[in-house]
Amino acid sequence: MKEVYLFNPEHDLALAHGAHNYTAPPFARQFRHDLRLLPSWVAPAGSYIAIPDDCPMEEDRRWLHDHHLDITPVPISKIAELGPCCIRPWGWDATLRYQLLQAGVSPDNLPTDEQLDWIRRLSHRRTTIAVHEALGMATTPCPVELSTQEEVTAFMNEHPGCYLKMPWSGSGKGIYRVLDPQGDNHVRHWIDGALRRQGSLLCEVGLDRVQDFAIECECRDGGTQLTGYSIFESDFHSQFGTGIVAPMEELHEMLLGMYPELDVVIGQLIMAINDLIAPHYNGPLGIDMMLYWDNNGKLALNPCVEINLRMTMGMVTAAMGSRHAMRGHFSIRFDQSRYSVSLSR
């Protein structure tokens, strides 16, 4: 069956909205437009990539040819003409399903409302709490979900440097780091707006970060397969900064060199995902993790910082390294009013 890849980075924002009539803000629409071919690195040879109808088709064909990618661009309005196909977007949500239905795509090629409801439910950040509880790693601080201004204020006063996270958000959006609870005049307004829109906040103790990384997986038919690793740096707001592009085995060895017990924890993580997520979800899944210094000065592991039921930048860097034999540091830049990606040696 034909596979059609599609970049919709506004997915997390659409999940927060919940309904099918979400309109992405200008920055998200531009991000989608400028990096529309990004999933081509993940897509297998012979696949298609859906692009907005107003994009230059010939320019995209040349780019794919110049990068030796056997991928065919197709306008979103023409997907239906491909016939039965497997559509693999960055992430599934009600808005994307509605847009594809409007473009004439058969419902048989799209997830059902029930499947979309499970994706939204499991994408809520409280799923990270369930994973922490399943792992039983009592030494690692577990997020707490709070639903009132008073509870959140008490938490941030007790834990300066903490992170407040909206239940549905991604790529650093919807995250507030509180360094000075008393002197931050904006944070209470932010908390009020977040609680009003999404009902609760996930509150996390700030950790002495050493290294961000992730495992990349695929959930299919009730099981979970490990497909790769990613090692990356994030900025002050937990947004993706740069990622290492290298073969999967090399990334694995780098991580084991820092934390030798990693494979044991990953095995436990896979079992937890099999219980909590895989029975209700088919598709890509990334779990962000973190090495940090604990209060005793020892290297410790936070096994579940984020769970993403979608494709991730780590999957792109993993494919570049293992499938395309590339090396370097992958980054996303905004320059001269447009987004672009670069791979520096």
Structural summary, described in words:
This protein is an alpha+beta fold. The protein has eleven helices and 15 strands. It is globular and about 55 Å long. The model has no long low-confidence stretch (mean pLDDT 94).
Please supply descriptive tags for the structure shown above:
345 residues, alpha+beta, Rossmann fold, D-amino Acid Aminotransferase, Chain A, domain 1, Dna Ligase, domain 1, 3 domains, seven-stranded antiparallel beta sheet, 33% helix
Question: What is the fold's blueprint, element by element?
Answer:
Elements: E1 2-6, H1 11-17, H2 26-34, E2 48-51, H3 57-66, E3 72-75, E4 85-89, H4 94-102, H5 113-123, H6 126-135, E5 144-146, H7 149-158, E6 162-165, E7 175-178, H8 187-198, E8 201-204, E9 208-220, E10 223-234, E11 240-245, H9 248-258, H10 262-276, E12 283-293, E13 299-308, H11 313-322, E14 328-335, E15 338-344
State the CATH class of the largest domain.
Alpha Beta
Helix share, percent: 25-40%
**CATH domain fold name of the largest domain:** D-amino Acid Aminotransferase, Chain A, domain 1
User: Number of folding domains?
Assistant: 3
Rounded to an integer in angstroms, the radius of gyration calculated over CA atoms is 20 Å
Kindly report how far apart the N and C termini lie.
Answer: 37 Å
Spatial shape: globular
Helices and strands, in order, run as EHHEHEEHHHEHEEHEEEEHHEEHEE
pLDDT averaged over residues: 94
CATH architecture of the largest domain: 2-Layer Sandwich
Unreliable stretches covering 5 or more consecutive residues: none
| Main sheet characteristics | 7 strands, antiparallel
